């Protein structure tokens, strides 16, 4: 295990295996050899099994009755389902956030907005984490815990589809559009403009990486 933040072996295995899946180092359909993976991570198979069980609850791997693990496939049907649910729930979250945001929420939204950088095929996990943190602050400001929990779970499932979306073309116009949308989302929520917040979020989801991934899968990519 590398130096840095203190993790249990199970937490480190979870983080590293998930990183490899999202980076396509463990591609869809790959059968995970637990013994090989344990050796690569310098630990026993027990924390690796615990990590794989956790990843199975997020839909990233599939466990059979013998505890063998396989990276799940990316499917058109799941991409469409995730897109449809987010198109309904994300606008609701920011609409509620615009109504209920606290001073602390406003401060967090402003701070996380400043940490964003364009998501391109070459960015690291930090850029994805910053993107998630920004959206999480918007969700949290809704003061609706069940809604936040649902959206957090959807985010886990959608991460690989975002990676697929990034492999499609993303020119300077896309980068600039996303920057404007993030700024407009923050502005609308902070200003308490419920209808504008919901509309900007609908437009944001309509042009999202998830939508781009769905288009690619529909075309047989």
From TrEMBL:
SMART domains tied to this protein: FCD (SM00895), HTH_GNTR (SM00345)
HTH gntR-type domain span: 7-74
UniProt keyword DNA-binding, yes or no: yes
SUPFAM superfamilies with a match to the protein in the record: GntR ligand-binding domain-like, Winged helix' DNA-binding domain
Pfam families xrefs: FCD, GntR
Listed InterPro entries: GntR_C, TF_FadR/GntR_C, Tscrpt_reg_HTH_GntR, WH-like_DNA-bd_sf, WH_DNA-bd_sf
UniProtKB keywords: DNA-binding, Transcription, Transcription regulation
GO MF assignments: DNA binding; DNA-binding transcription factor activity
Protein name (database record): GntR family transcriptional regulator
Organism placement in taxonomy: Bacteria, Bacillati, Actinomycetota, Actinomycetes, Micrococcales
């Amino acid at each position: 295990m590398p130096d840095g933040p203190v993790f249990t072996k199970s937490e480190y295995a979870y983080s590293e295996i998930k990183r490899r899946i999202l980076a396509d180092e463990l591609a869809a359909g790959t059968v995970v050899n637990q013994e090989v993976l344990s050796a690569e991570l310098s630990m026993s198979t027990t924390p690796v099994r615990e990590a794989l069980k956790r990843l199975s609850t997020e839909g990233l791997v599939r466990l059979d009755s013998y505890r063998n693990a396989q990276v799940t496939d990316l499917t058109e049907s799941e991409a469409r389902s995730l897109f449809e649910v987010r198109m309904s729930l994300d606008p609701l979250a920011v609409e509620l956030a615009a109504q209920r945001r606290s001073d602390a929420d406003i401060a967090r939204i402003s701070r996380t907005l400043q940490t964003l950088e364009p998501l391109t095929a070459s960015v690291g996990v930090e850029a994805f984490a910053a993107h998630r943190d920004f959206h999480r602050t918007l969700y949290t400001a809704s003061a609706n815990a069940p809604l936040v929990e649902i959206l957090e779970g959807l985010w886990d499932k959608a991460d690989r589809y975002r990676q697929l979306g990034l492999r499609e073309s993303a020119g300077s116009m896309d980068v600039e559009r996303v920057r404007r949308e993030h700024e407009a989302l923050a502005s609308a929520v902070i200003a308490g403009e419920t209808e504008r917040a919901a509309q900007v979020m609908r437009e944001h989801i309509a042009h999202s990486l998830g939508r781009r991934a769905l288009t690619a899968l529909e075309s047989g990519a």
